[in-house]
Amino acid sequence: MEELTEVITAAEFHPTKCNEFVYSSSKGSIRLCDMRDKALCDQHAKLFEEAEDPQARSFFSEIIASVSDVKFSHDGRYLLTRDYLTVKVWDLHMESSPVETYPVHEHLRSKLCQLYENDSIFDKFECGWSGDDK
């Protein structure tokens, strides 16, 4: 049996384009797929990923980068993602970086070792848009 290096953590269909869906991964990637090309989506149409700062790399980098939830905005123009320490808003027309990043529980950054020891670092969090996409 092969050892898994990356798993899908969340997925959602586009609210108005039934042929498009997005999924997130344990490595922090968000992929948009279009089923008009073919039903087997073994290649993505767009990859949303932030460049990692090599200076900030630590033992916990990959764990806290894991995206636990992804949601389309009601109009389908934006994506909302949640990892362990941030909520990010992505524009579907700009794959290189999020348009907004909101730190969540920044005070936990210094306690990552303790959170790892009691498995709390593997908790999954959901995110959601308000009715007016804010």
Task: Report the total helices.
Answer: 2
Q: β content, as a range?
A: 25-35%
Please report the total strand number as a whole number. 8
Report the span from N to C terminus: 44 Å
Helical residue percent? under 10%
Structural class: mainly beta
**Biggest beta sheet summary:** 4 strands, antiparallel
Give the H and E element order: EEEEHEEEEH
Count of domain modules: 1
CATH architecture, by name, is 7 Propeller
Low-confidence stretches: none
Question: What is the CATH superfamily?
Answer: YVTN repeat-like/Quinoprotein amine dehydrogenase
User: What best-fitting shape do the alpha-carbon axes yield?
Assistant: globular
CATH topology: Methylamine Dehydrogenase, Chain H
CATH class: Mainly Beta
Mean pLDDT: 88
CA-based gyration radius:
15 Å
The side-by-side strand order for the widest beta sheet comes to 1-2-3-4
